Amino acid sequence: EVQLVESGGGLVKPGGSLRLSCAASGFTFSSYSMNWVRQAPGKGLEWVSSISSSSSYIYYADSVKGRFTISRDNAKNSLYLQMNSLRAEDTAVYYCASSGSGSYPDYWGQGTLVTVSS
Amino acid sequence: NFMLTQPHSVSESPGKTVTISCTRSSGSIASNYVQWYQQRPGSAPTTVIYEDNQRPSGVPDRFSGSIDSSSNSASLTISGLKTEDEADYYCQSYDSSNPWVFGGGTKLTVL
After folding, report:
1. Is B50 an 8 Å CB contact of chain A?
2. Do B105 and A104 touch (CB under 8 A)?
3. What is the rounded CA–CA span in Å between residue A59 and residue A36?
4. Are A103 and B50 in contact (CB under 8 A)?
5. By the CB < 8 Å criterion, does B37 face chain A?
6. How far apart, in whole angstroms, are the C-alpha atoms of residue A14 and residue B52?
7. What percent of chain A has pLDDT over 90?
8. Which of A96, A2, A100, A103 is closest to B58 using CA atoms?
9. Predicted confidence (pLDDT) per residue in A34-52, tens digit
10. Cβ–Cβ of A45/B90 closer than 8 Å?
């Protein structure tokens, strides 16, 4: 059974930093692209960032470019999102999602809530 | 960049059929696969349709997907509506310049 478990969310002040993690199991992690998608309270889904299976290709939404860094450790079956210079508008539930094709999500984690507020 | 536009909400009675549309603003809807995700309140999204019209195992055949090039749109049809189908539904697609694009979501009410 595929499992994606996010952690690391919490309350942080504007301008602060947070590192999210996603632990994967039940599939060959090193063969899949991995992604972060967020959902602000009461809003829709927004793609944040993607990383290819070998980390050769990395993409960011314009809204987070230069502030967020995606990475992965295939030996640990883990995905990360380093979030710096956080803003109120970054407040959201952050989901990690696997993608076999790279073009769409296959499986989703349960999400971790990030709240940016003073 | 292209956008995917969905109706904000739809409602229908149990046992009936409902169709949710997803219109692509630029570029051909047929050029890139469209996926559909169901999200119940407080839960993560799950895939109900992938690659335009494919159902993951475990998704009932009451759910079907299609694309219409004439209207440049995709559709999710749910037949034999059940109260458990009440949820938000999101379409998603992509192209070479836009890794993942989601529609704004449609709230389905089964009343």
Report:
1. yes
2. no
3. 10
4. no
5. yes
6. 40
7. 95
8. A2
9. 999 999 999 999 999 999 9
10. yes
